[in-house]
Amino acid sequence: MTGDARPGESAPLICVMGVSAAGKSTVGIALAAALGVTFEDADPLHSEANRAKMNAGTPLTDEDRWPWLDAVGGRFAAHESDGLVLACSALRRVYRDRIRAAAPGVLFVHLHGSRELLGSRADARTGHFMPPALLDSQLATLEELDSDEAGMVVVVDKTPEEIVREILERLGARSGR
User: Fold this and answer.
1) In whole angstroms, what is the distance from residue 42 CA to residue 67 CA?
2) How far apart are the first and last CA of the chain?
3) For the chain, what percent of residues have pLDDT higher than 90?
4) Residue 144 exposed, middle or buried by CB count within 10 Å (0-12, 13-18, 19+)
């Protein structure tokens, strides 16, 4: 797959999902580069009010998230012809359904790690608006991909390069290459 889709082949629309500190942005940037498509992060699509709540350690409600998820779906829809890799938590099925309502072809790549690994990564980050204290809230909210959802789960206990290589291999297997 590349950004220059061949005839009969659609451009990739990939949501790199998971809880905070799973490596969504790091993996997403590298995956987009490998696929030759644009990378975007969903965090800047949050309202100022949402960012303030998260900074204060207050989990968002679904009502807080709906406009943000609509914006995420809109970004995918805007890139249906040229492809997009977008990092977004997409923790619950209803959130992923909301994104798919705008762009049905989105494939979700769930970056999964143990609480211990994710906690150590979150504690090591500086300057991120999502405080480590919200990790447990995100883990409690997380709903694994259902069998009828287009996607894959990738364990993040390896290097970003190894993770991207695994995703690309699995994408190739899906497309019959």
Assistant:
1) 12
2) 10
3) 66
4) exposed
DSSP SS3 for 176: coil
Give the residue with greater pLDDT, 62 vs 137: 62
Secondary structure element (H or E) that encloses residue 171, with its range: helix 160-174
Q: Sheet harboring 151-155: ordered strands across?
A: 38-41, 84-87, 13-17, 107-112, 151-155
79-137 pLDDT per residue, tens: 999 999 999 999 999 999 999 999 999 999 999 988 787 877 666 655 544 554 567 78
Residue with tokens 């030759």: 36
Taking each helix axis from N to C end, the angle separating 48-55 and 62-78, rounded to the nearest 10 degrees, works out to: 130
- The rounded mean pLDDT for the chain is 87
Give how far Cα 100 sits from Cα of 66, 82, 151, Å: 13, 17, 12
- DSSP-derived secondary structure for 73-110: HHHHHHTTTT-EEEE----SHHHHHHHHHH-TTPEEEE
Residue 90, phi then psi, degrees to nearest 5: 45, 50
Q: Taking the domain 34-158+166-172, which CATH number applies?
A: 3.40.50.300
